[in-house]
Write a structure and sequence with these properties.
The protein is α+β, with helices and mostly antiparallel strands. It has a single domain, classed as CBS-domain. Helix content is 40%, strand content 17%. The protein is built from five helices and four strands; from the N terminus they run H-H-E-E-H-H-E-E-H. The strands form two sheets. It has a two-stranded antiparallel ribbon with strand order 1-2. The protein is elongated and about 60 Å long. The two termini are 19 Å apart.
Length: 141
Amino acid sequence: MLKSIKVRDCMTRHLVTFRSDTDLFLAIDRLLEHRISGAPVVDSQGHLIGMLSEGDCLRGILSGACQEGAGGSVSSYMSTQLETLSPDADIIEACQRFLRERRRRFPVVEDGVLVGQISRRDVLRAVKAFAQHASDQPPEV
């Protein structure tokens, strides 16, 4: 049953993260280098404090272009309205949240600390693996 798959079973654990004082252009370089469209922003204890997306970076570039000084730190442009998932949430809840909130990824937080991230693609991989495993099982007699 799909409800038996938990977010912790299929989330990505090793993430590119930023600190709030990371230079915006360094963050853009890292997003491009890792071919990702966004990353969590954490404090020194690993608490999630924001998310930086490609859109946030574009806003930073436009803001700077208008003021003749593009750049600054991640904290000036990161999103702080955060939607997260618990690692104990099941995959059905994750699917519902992806559809309802039209997100591509959710940070996974336990006791305020970032422990991973789950994307739509992670969910699809988990469901595919579950279905393949189920079809490999011999029928019960």
